[in-house]
Amino acid sequence: MSYILNRVFSMMLTLFLISAITFAVTNILPGDVAMMIMGTQSNPEALAGLRETLGLNDPLLMQYGRWIGGMLTGDWGSSLVFKEPIAPLLLQKMTASGLLVLFSMTIALACAVPLGVWAAVHANRWQDTAASSTAMLGVSLPDFFWGIMLILLFARGLGWLPSSGFVDPADDLGAAIRHALLPSLALGLGLMAHLTRMTRATMTGILKQEFIRVARAKGLKESTVVWRYGLANAVGPVMTVAGLQVGYLFGSIIVIESLFNYTGMGWLTYQALLNRDIPLIQASVFVIAAVVMLANLLVDLLYAVVDPRIRLS
Amino acid sequence: MKVPAAFRNTKGIVGAVVVLTVLAVAILAPLLIPADWATRMDMRARLSAPTWAHPLGTDQLGRDLMFRVLLGAQTSIFIASAAVLMSIVIGLPLGLVSGYMGKTTDNVLMRLVDTLLSFPALLLALTISAVLGPNLQNTIIAIGIAFTPFLARIIRGEALRVAQMPYVEAARTAGNSDLRLITLHILPNIMPVVIVQATISLAFAILAEAGLSFLGLGTQPPDASWGLMIQASRDYLDRAPWTALVPGAAVALTVLGLNMFGDALRDALDPRTRGEA
Question: How many Cβ atoms are within 10 Å of A21's Cβ, its own excluded?
């Protein structure tokens, strides 16, 4: 229990630091919110007036206090580009991206684990070379390149799936899934390659251990040895890496959602960055970092569940 | 002799050959190919498929893709190398001091590093690039800063391990100063890990540059980089898929080479995995 309390306290501290870094980075932007609202050609006096009203002449620390106060009380301000309150906007886009994250993680894990185990079981034989080379190629290509290839093949070539756009699952679940499939595949392929490499490395180490030899000596079936004895021990490390990849996924999502015009969190962040929508940049960068941190915390806690040897302390 | 061990397996040799070839292209192409060959427009041969005149085809402005990809190597490699160098220059002292000093210094520094690691590297790079204004120099800074926390974390772990070794203890007892201990006894022993990480980071930096440029927040025209070429190809994919395939293959080949070489190097140099392969 004290471990969890400790983690929560440490999480609050990290969240505070994340907010401070986000605020600091976005405040060195040339030009400010007032300029964004009124445009670069605006009357200097009116601009100065607006700056005063918005409190942009206050010391940075005070501005930060006001911002974080707003974040804590649910007043996240309004987007300058979308002219909408930020909090509901982010929630809606986060749901859209959640679908992509879920799909791509599922695709990646469902392919990577069997492939990695298969490579490890046949270590240093052609099966291993084939699986490892595929994975190596997978990590070497940019996600958006996979995306372009998938569009060319499944959307333009075969015409099976739409090449761009987003449909709300609440409106039409089937269409929502069809629109999410290609971006999820593009995200999932790179991820799969990383996870295959990790599964292979972990399993190779495990299969060399004593208890595996004992299990084989007992006359257990090879499939039982590999899947029940071997994989059970690999789940923890593979899960940790999968958790760490959530951060990677949220980086890639910006590129992939922009490529597929999938209007989720990544697309929104990109629009905010392109248009220098400072309040929206601050909020979305903060939310993404917080989500990544929470995902890692969740993985740490789950680790103790799947591996009883780990006692949280 | 440790280094040649990296060349003892096929993966390491193939990786090294690819990396050296790309490096040679990046250095020699600008010397041997006149710069205007990559910008010369041939409006009659727009989006031409590979022909004898244009072995890798042309882009939407009728520019030769082979020359563009050869000359683009310089930009992509330069940005990636400079960014990795920058992350080492910042991350190395940070990690060394944190790992060696321990206690409060370590706690404070690593808390900061862990926080930075919560930001996806690409998001951090994109934000920095958008804040500073996208151009070649700022792309380097953006990627360099985004990669620093990761490197600092790894170096800190190594420094911590090495600092606890008996020979460091002995050197300390002999009256060596902290600075001397760090520079003469710890640094040389963590260099293998730094070199391995630098090689792998280089691969990621090339991907990051491509990603940034693809979104228009990295290299800007008229500089030609591989990511920028893929971005330009987006509107012509139906008619001329080679406009994306050519620079994409260049990125893939380079990153593949770096990853293969990095893997072999790690097997040979990294004390944590040495002897496992």
Answer: 19
Q: Residue for token digits 């996600």?
A: A143
DSSP single-letter state for residue A161: S
Q: Which two tokens stand for residue A308?
A: 């009883």
Which chain B residues are closer than 8 Å to A208 by Cβ? Answer: none
The number of C-beta contacts closer than 8 angstroms across A and B is: 126
Does residue A248 sit at the B interface (CB-CB below 8 Å)? yes
Q: Is the Cβ of B236 closer than 8 Å to some Cβ of chain A?
A: no
Q: Which two tokens mark B84?
A: 């990795």
pLDDT tens, chain A, 313 aa long: 677 788 788 888 888 888 888 888 887 766 566 766 666 677 777 777 777 777 777 777 888 888 888 888 888 888 877 888 888 889 888 888 988 998 999 999 898 888 888 888 887 788 888 888 888 888 888 888 888 888 888 887 888 888 888 888 788 888 888 888 899 999 988 888 888 888 888 888 887 878 878 888 888 888 787 787 777 777 777 877 788 788 888 888 999 999 888 999 999 999 998 888 888 888 998 899 888 888 888 887 777 777 766 655 5
Residue ranges of domains in chain B, CATH in brackets: 9-24+64-268 (1.10.3720.10)
Write down the ipTM of this complex.
0.82
Q: Would you say A272 and A280 are in contact if contact means Cβ atoms under 8 Å apart?
A: yes
pTM, rounded to two decimals: 0.85
Tokens 């520094």 identify what position? B109
| CB atoms closer than 10 angstroms to residue B161 | 16
The answer to whether residue A145 neighbours chain B at the CB level (below 8 Å) is: yes
- Give the whole-angstrom CA distance, residue A20 versus residue A11: 14
| Chain B CB contacts of A254 below 8 Å | 122-123, 126, 215
* CA distance readout (Å), B248 to A70, A142, B30: 44, 8, 20
Task: Nearest chain A residue to B130 by CA: give it.
Answer: A273
| Residue A227 burial (C-beta neighbours within 10 Å; 0-12, 13-18, 19+) | middle
Interchain CB distance below 8 Å, B120 and A247: yes
A251 contact B CB<8A: yes
Place of tokens 């090689």: B199
